[in-house]
Amino acid sequence: MDRIKLPERPRILVIALRRLGDVLLTTPLIRSLRRAWPEATIDALVFADTAGILEGNPDLNGIVAMPASRTTLQSAALARRLWRRYDLAVSTQPGDRPTFFAFAAGRVRVGPVESDFNGRLKRTVYNRSFPRVGGLHRVEENLRLCDLIGIKRAAEVVCPASATSTQTPADDYAVIHAAPMFRYKQWTTNGWRELAKALAARGLTLIATGGPAEQERRYLDAVWSGLQVQRCDGKLSWPQLAALLAKARIYVGPDTSVTHLAAAAGCPTVALYGPTDPRLWAPWPLDGVDAMWADIGRIQNRGNVWLVQHAFPCTPCQLEGCERRLDSYSACLDELAPAHVIEAVDEALKGWKAREQSC
Question: What is the fold, at CATH topology level, of the domain defined by 173-358?
C-alpha cells in the first residue's frame, strides 16, 4: 500500500486505551512511525494508570493520559482539546472509544474495525482501515497498521527509559514477580517458594517485585515468609524496574506486564502461562521471533524467552480461569510442578551463559 502523505513535520497520535502489557506491545508501532517520520511529533493517548510503561520512551514526544473511568463530559472535553490537532491519528483498537478519539484528533485516521455492521459504520470514520483478524499476536496485530499506513515495520518492543535504583545488588541476582493482576493467572505459593530455594541454591540473590496494593502485599508476605528474598514490591518506578530487569541473570513471572517488560529488556525470561494463548500474548523476545509461538508446549523457547505450560486438553482456553471470573483458580497453573519450572530456569541460565560467552 502507498505511504500516507503527511506534512514534512507531522503531528501523530497513537491511541492505545488498554492495560499495561497491551500498551507496552504498542511500542513497535510507535518505533515504526518514528523511523518513518524522524522529525514528527508523536504522542500516545493512554489511560493514566498505564502511562508509566511509556515513561522516557525515546520515540514519543508526549503522553496524553486520561482516566480509565470518566464521565461523558470529561470525554467531550478531551475530544475538544484534541480536535484536529494531529495530522495522523492511529487507533490500535476497533472499539467505540478509540474510534471516537481517532475521529476527533486526526485529520487523517487509520485503524482496525470489527467485521460486522458496527465495523462497516466505523469504516466511514477512517481514511484507511481493515477488519480485525483473530488469531494474531498483539505485536503482529499492531504492526499490520504499519502496512496500512504504508511504512516499514520495526518489530521492537521498547522499554521505558532506564533509571538507577538502590535496589540493584552488586552480585548476580534473579528477579521473581509472583503476583499477577488477576487471580486466574496466579501460580501456587508452594511453587514460588520451591523456585526461590532452587535459585538461591544456584548462587543467585533473590529480588521479588510487585505492586503497591495492600492486598497484593499481603499475598506476597505469605509467599516469601521465612525466605531470604529482597522485597521491592511497591518501591520501583517503571524505568527503575526496566533497569533492574536488564541486569538480572534471570526473571521468572506469570502472564503479566512485568514479564513482557523483562523479555523486552533482554533478560532471560521464564514465563508461566495457563489459560492465556501464547500465540496471542506470549512475551516478545528482544530480537523478535523467527517462528511464532505454538498454542501449547511443555517448554517453548524463542530468543531470550522460555514459556512454560502444564497441558490439559483445554489448554489454553483463553477464559478467565476454571470458574470464568477474574478471581478464579486455573487448574493448569495449579498443576504446574515446581520441577517443571526449575527445568526451564536451568535451560534459560544455560542459554544466557552461552550467549554471554559468544559476545
Answer: Rossmann fold (3.40.50)
